[in-house]
Amino acid sequence: MKKEFLLISGLMLSSLAFAADPAAIDSLINLQGVVISANRVQVNRSSVPLTISVIDRDQIEASSESALLPVLSERVPGLFVTEKGITGFGVSSGSAGTVNIRGVGQGNKVLMLFDGQPQWAGVFGHSLPDTYVASDVERVEVIRGPGSLLYGSNAMGGVVNIITRQHRQEGRRTQARVMMGSYNTQKYMINNGYNVGNFSSFISLNHDRTDGHRADSKFDITNGFLNLGYKIDDHYKVTGDLSLAKYNTEDPGTITSPLLDHVMHILRGTTSFALENHHEKSSGALRVFYNWGHHKINDGHAPNADPRSFLFYSDDHNTGIQLYQSFRLVEGNTFTAGVDYKNWGGHAWNDTIKGAIGEVVDKSVHEVAGYAIMQQDLFDILSLNAGVRYEHSSAYGGEWVPQAGFALRPFEGNTIKGSFSKGYRSPTLRELYISYLPYSKANPDLKPESMLSYELSIGQRLLDNRLHAELTAFYIEGKDMISVVDRQMSNIGHFYNKGIEFETGYQILNNLSLDMNYSYLYMNKDIVAAPAHKFFAGATYMPGRFTLNLSVQSIFDLYTNVGSKPEDNRKEDYTVLNARASYRFGTRDKGLNLFVKGENLTATRYTINDGYPMPKATFMGGIDVTF
């Protein structure tokens, strides 16, 4: 009864009035727009068979979040992100920021991209959630399902393509923001965009810090981002970017097993260069990327134990080259071919002040791949899409990746999609080469994990695109999951998941809108961080210069722990209510904005990471200036 009441309450909340400015309204109405994550080139979202969610700049800006992942966790059906505090995700086993899509994600099974280029730590294979800064993002395209055809390893459960900001408007624009709130949390941001002639630049700087809602849970981070672009002529353009993040985080351990001195010092960086070409019947790019990190970690000790005598260090890298070209030689046809090369790995060791006490790993893996994908549009109502990829790894050999699907548009505003695709994940250096005796022994003969996905969706737009809704059903089956058997890493696991996802949005008036999403997930094997029911409803109302936002998220049947015995399993059900109010002086491009926001306003007690209770009600206030 509690679940039904909370869902009904959420539906009632979603019917509350909310408004947006004209730019945000236009963004919502045209949300289907174009996407680039499906075919590497711009295509209409309604013509590709994959289920893709798009989160645009206005939705990110309206959240006042400095981190990107919490926005995605609310706005994308079927996607869930683990959290453990007011801000900051951290790294290592006590961290949060794991992204699950349709119950697949732990162990880096959802691929995070910057402008189509993979981002993960080369040694342990985990994503880097604290480096995904909201102020640096133009939009996010999320493929809810395998994306390995174009992006290769680790795109098994899905793809989150973070498209970074470039300043395209003529002239200069500067934005600065200061936020302060609960638990001495402070957030500072400044960015500047400049465009003159054929040259453009965008630069930003962020700094977040908090004392945390628990003892020994301090966190601070400084992020910097730079993007430069130059249009050579009407056909060629070069871009380059650099992102750096330095952060320090404390992990207090679980409530039942607290830790002292569990401190992590992290330096992360990524840089890339691209040469893009755009012609009447062809377009493509050459992209080169390199991301790296240096980690210094004290794994801490129990309050009644001696401090550790050594620290863990690691240097990792993930570098590669991408070359692809798309051709439109026949009416209605798009053919894209590409080749990828990646080299990832690193060096990890334990060290004391007086010298090294033990090597952990010093390895790298090479991967090379070629792929082709073709899309054919027929009679303006049907699009057929098919492709194949072959990838060879120095660690496990070759892997074939097929994909096929259709998008049918039988009448105006209606789209029916169906697809079949394969996804896979390469074993990490930790699984291949790092043994944790007596608990688990590495296995250099591991094969990649893989899964097959089948999905069908139907979408409809009405009232001059002011109302839209989409319903998706999926079934996925995985094999060769990597697990510990007799204390050795082995390919033994199998699973299947199925479910439905629903999202809708309604622009009731020019100043009145609402949006909602819901997902249901059934798994034959219980895993943590994958709720069976996930519901979100949001509303924004802007009378005059005021903007009021209200949202609710309900999570049911979320496993926070899955043990070897049923009695060891632990579940959470919770609902959180969030609100934001702001008042603007001037315009969006030149003005001042005062705002205040509250999260978990009902002070719900809940846990996402087992043993790490989330904070009760938290409040932030700030000022945003644009000039």
UniProtKB/TrEMBL annotation:
GO terms for biological process: siderophore transmembrane transport. It is a multi-pass membrane protein. Residues 1-19 form the signal peptide. One of its GO terms (cellular component) is cell outer membrane. Coiled coil: none annotated. Its main location: membrane. It holds the Pfam family TonB_dep_Rec_b-barrel. Residues 46-159 form the TonB-dependent receptor plug domain. Residues 219-601 form the TonB-dependent receptor-like beta-barrel domain. Gene3D superfamilies: TonB-dependent receptor, beta-barrel domain, TonB-dependent receptor, plug domain. GO terms for molecular function: siderophore uptake transmembrane transporter activity. CDD domains: ligand_gated_channel (cd01347). Keywords: Cell outer membrane, Membrane, Receptor, Signal, TonB box, Transmembrane, Transmembrane beta strand, Transport. Transmembrane segments: none annotated. PROSITE patterns: TONB_DEPENDENT_REC_3 (PS52016). The keyword Membrane applies. The keyword Secreted does not apply. It is found in: Cell outer membrane. InterPro entries: Beta-barrel_TonB, Beta-barrel_TonB_sf, Plug_dom, Plug_dom_sf, TonB-dep_rcpt-like. Belongs to the TonB-dependent receptor family. This is TonB-dependent receptor.
